[in-house]
Amino acid sequence: MEKLPVDKLDIEEWKRVLDVNLNGAFYTAKAAIPYLKRSGSGKIITIGSGMGHKGRADGAPYSCSKAGLWMLTRILAQELSEFKISVNELIPGPVNTDMGNDSKKDKNSAFSINGEWVKAPEDVIDLAVFLAGLPDTGPTAQSFSLMRRDI
Asked: Gene3D superfamilies, per this entry (predicted)?
């Protein structure tokens, strides 16, 4: 993912990132909702980012897609609460994946913040399982973060 100011961004890159991070979640939720409603309860957990709450210069596609995902999470929570379906956001913070390789070189990324915990993908599982196991009357429209700093 290129880190460029808006005026230098390629439109196709903008569309690609929004398709993956926002539209992919929308299509998945839309397909799952009828089944969750029929079952009488359920959980939707979106994978957010601190950049969706704060944004970052030279990161418009990613930040905007994750901000949109956070808003979709909140809207779905409002629409689905009467069906006992909770919708929450999980923010893993920096995770040691191929996607994060470029960020590791960036002195302004979460990988470079003193005291931040860089997680392995499996480190995120416990929070996801916790959220999925909450009672039907549990939280909805909330953001849960594994980061060691404010979102």
From this structure: NAD(P)-binding Rossmann-like Domain (3.40.50.720)
pLDDT digit string (tens) for 60-79? Answer: 999 999 999 999 999 999 99
Return d(Cα 63, Cα 49) in angstroms, integer.
8
The question of whether 27 is a catalytic residue gets the answer no
* Burial degree of 101 (CB within 10 A; 0-12, 13-18, 19+): exposed
Contacts for 137 with CB less than 8 Å, ≥ 6 apart: 84
Tell me whether residue 140 is in a domain: yes
CATH number at residue 85: 3.40.50.720
d(CA 97, CA 120): 8
